[in-house]
User: Which sequence fits this backbone?
């Protein structure tokens, strides 16, 4: 099937606008979600999320505190989420005000309380009823448009939540089309290692996770399905045995903490797998500052991160090649009521980009994302992205316009059009536009 890019652009924009108008006329009943944290604490999803699954300020603070609501104070409760104060006050997360006694948890011993297994278990899914992507197929040596209907993207089963005071677990297994079941993200976090008097100053996380968790905007919790390109650009063109990318989850050990408006993180990893193929380690550090913790701009922040490591090829042979890489990240977020503006800039340096000749590569890139919570059911937004690289094959320049419509807080349709902004000259014959409708849910 052949669809001209300009035609798809006009049709997709019209369909996206039509989706907004159609969705805005519908009025389903507002309902609480049924994911693990909602079951534990009797809260709806919007207590912690703006556009699912992006966290709001309250959600970020809860994550820093090991997802233990009893460690939140009354001042932490956001005024815009009346369901939290109406359904669950922080003091009601204790059966009698004693440390560690949470609603829905069973007392095992004076110091051990465990939640019901049904409160910890959850699953989520993503389906794509329709996608139209230009230049996505090569047939007979010619680039053609791919139309896909009824695609099942993935199902994720996960366990998440506190298992006892100051100990939180998260284990996520994913079943995706064409792939075997495997761990996607997993970690055990130990909080308050310096004691309650230094609340949050030192915490430990062990498992497989992205080092970008504490940035002002994380690739792991995106409002729309496509990844942030600059977080996905891997070391050594992605061809190494130990390819690294900012958004990638790696087996790691991490120390992190928070004091007032300041958050820090330092971590170390073997690399792509725990049994790494080379003897080198990856390191990173992040500093984040909340510019406002109260008032209209609460949750606005800036962050900076640095990571370095080594990718390799032929590690078991005498012909081993290594690529030493570095990543510098600056990100920020501005929150005000229903407005959520965030973005990031990344500079990357690779000393042996082709893992052969010592070819150096540098790239610069970033993105800006704007979301607006128009109603309880409707959130439109856009994402502008651009990457410049010494290797022209990895340059990106495009604009995404989309809208999420929530049937319930935990079930939503996502419609977006992603337009390739690179020039129409012969230098870019692979320009790709995409119109996608997705259905996502969490239970």
Assistant:
């Amino acid at each position: 099937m052949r669809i001209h890019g300009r035609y798809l652009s006009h049709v997709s924009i019209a369909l996206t606008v039509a989706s907004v108008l159609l969705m805005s006329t519908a009025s389903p009943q507002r309902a609480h979600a049924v994911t693990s944290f909602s079951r534990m604490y009797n809260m709806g999803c919007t207590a912690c999320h703006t556009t699912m699954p992006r966290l709001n300020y309250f959600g970020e603070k809860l994550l820093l505190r090991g997802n233990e609501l009893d460690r939140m104070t009354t001042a932490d409760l956001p005024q815009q989420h009346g369901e939290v104060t109406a359904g669950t006050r922080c003091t009601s997360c204790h059966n009698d005000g004693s440390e560690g006694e949470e609603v829905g948890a069973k007392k095992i011993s004076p110091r051990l309380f465990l939640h019901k297994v049904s409160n910890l278990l959850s699953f989520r899914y993503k389906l794509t009823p329709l996608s139209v992507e230009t230049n996505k197929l090569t047939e007979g040596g010619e680039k053609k448009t791919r139309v896909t209907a009824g695609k099942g993207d993935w199902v994720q089963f996960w366990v998440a939540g506190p298992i006892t005071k100051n100990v939180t677990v998260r284990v996520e297994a994913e079943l995706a089309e064409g792939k075997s079941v495997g761990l996607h993200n997993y970690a055990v976090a130990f909080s308050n290692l310096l004691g309650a008097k230094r609340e949050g100053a030192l915490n430990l996380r062990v498992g497989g996770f992205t080092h970008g968790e504490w940035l002002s905007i994380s690739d792991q919790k995106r409002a729309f399905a496509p990844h942030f390109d600059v977080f996905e650009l891997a070391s050594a063109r992605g061809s190494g045995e130990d390819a690294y990318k900012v958004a990638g989850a790696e087996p790691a050990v991490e120390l992190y903490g928070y004091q007032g408006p300041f958050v820090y993180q330092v971590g170390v990893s073997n690399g792509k797998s725990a049994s790494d193929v080379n003897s080198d380690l990856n390191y990173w550090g992040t500093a984040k500052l909340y510019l406002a913790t109260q008032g209209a701009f609460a949750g606005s922040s800036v962050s900076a991160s640095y990571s370095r490591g080594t990718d390799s090829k032929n590690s078991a042979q005498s012909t081993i090649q290594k690529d030493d890489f570095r990543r510098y990240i600056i990100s920020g977020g501005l929150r005000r009521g229903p407005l959520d503006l965030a973005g990031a800039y990344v500079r990357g340096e690779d000393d042996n980009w082709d893992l052969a000749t010592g070819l150096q590569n540098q790239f610069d890139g970033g993105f800006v994302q704007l979301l607006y919570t128009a109603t309880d059911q409707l959130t439109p937004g856009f994402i502008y992205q651009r990457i410049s690289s010494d290797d022209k094959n990895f340059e990106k320049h495009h604009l995404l316009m989309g809208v999420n419509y929530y049937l319930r807080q935990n079930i939503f349709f996502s419609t977006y059009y992603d337009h390739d902004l690179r020039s129409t000259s012969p230098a870019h014959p692979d320009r790709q536009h995409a119109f996608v409708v997705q259905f996502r849910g969490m239970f």
Q: What stands out?
A: The chain has a mean pLDDT of 83. The radius of gyration is 23 Å. The chain has one domain: 5-442.
